[in-house]
Amino acid sequence: MPRFAANLTMMYTEHNFLERFGAAARDGFTAVEYLFPYDYPAAALAAQLKEHGLKQVLFNSPPGDWKAGERGIAALPGREQEFRDGFLLALEYGLALGSSRIHAMAGIAPKGADRAHLIGVYTANLAWAAERARAAGIDLLIEPIAQRNIPGFFLNRQEEAHAIAAEVGAPNLKILMDLFHCQVEEGDLAVKIRKYLADPKTTRVGHFQIAGVPERHEPGSGEVNFFYLFDVIDQLGYEGWIGCEYAPAGATSAGLGWFKKQTAAR
């Protein structure tokens, strides 16, 4: 059955960040993810994981100037050294936290930039990062993100992500298949899941994320039948994690009926 990780950036925001680990564990989660760990010493985060019996399954490498609106730099010309320095920091955190996945955000394409040039920068950075990550036993993830949510984002569609991963060719370069972004940008979720999980032993899908569409609240709200999709994912033999990257409509714990229903069915 699918395994769910609480996203502590978007969930449990009624608590201070370090208190969210315990809140997630009390609600039955056994794993967590979040956007960035860098505001806290790795030792402090590792202590929370250990205290509450949680597994760290995903976080992002440094994205550039997030407060100024940057959303990754992996595909941005002239930022190669910054990306690589940041990724080495991410690897340090990954090893300290026991995370087997790090997501590198592509970034917002500069206006008027030649896409072929950006792809060259992107693939070179990914090849470099994947090699370092592989030596550490970590998968490098890339994620298509819907234009509606991040206008101008470089990578938007599943097919594009898989083509880039195939071009790089690193066995530990995987796709973060966010079903919220996939539905907003292109739809046809069950067909795409079946296509890219056809062989769970060779699939490049390394992680899923979920949120109700279109409001990005709890799974089960909105237009997507996630319970059906969970069955599809399960039937295809996926053994990875599904990150709950949604903004609860109210108090986080009060909105976990979908989670209790799904885990009770195991």
Describe the structure.
α1 runs parallel beside α2. It is globular and about 50 Å long. Helix content is 39%, strand content 14%. The termini are close together. It has one domain: Divalent-metal-dependent TIM barrel enzymes (TIM Barrel), CATH 3.20.20. The mean pLDDT is 97. It is built from nine helices and eight strands. It has 266 residues and is an alpha/beta fold. α8 links the parallel β7 and β8.
Any key phrases for this structure?
9 helices
Q: What are the low-pLDDT stretches, counting only 5+ consecutive residues below 50? A: none
Largest β sheet strand count, sense and barrel closure: 8 strands, parallel, barrel
| Total number of strands | 8
Structural class: alpha/beta
Write down the secondary-structure element order. Answer: EHEHEHEHEHEHHEHEH
End-to-end distance: 6 Å
Which superfamily, in CATH terms, is the homologous superfamily? Divalent-metal-dependent TIM barrel enzymes
Summary?
This protein is of the alpha/beta class.
Walk me through the topology.
Layout: E1 3-7, H1 17-26, E2 31-33, H2 42-52, E3 55-60, H3 80-97, E4 101-103, H4 115-135, E5 139-142, H5 158-168, E6 173-178, H6 179-185, H7 189-196, E7 205-210, H8 226-235, E8 241-244, H9 257-264
Parallel strand pairs: 1-2, 1-8, 2-3, 3-4, 4-5, 5-6, 6-7, 7-8
Helix pairs in contact: 1-2, 3-4, 4-5
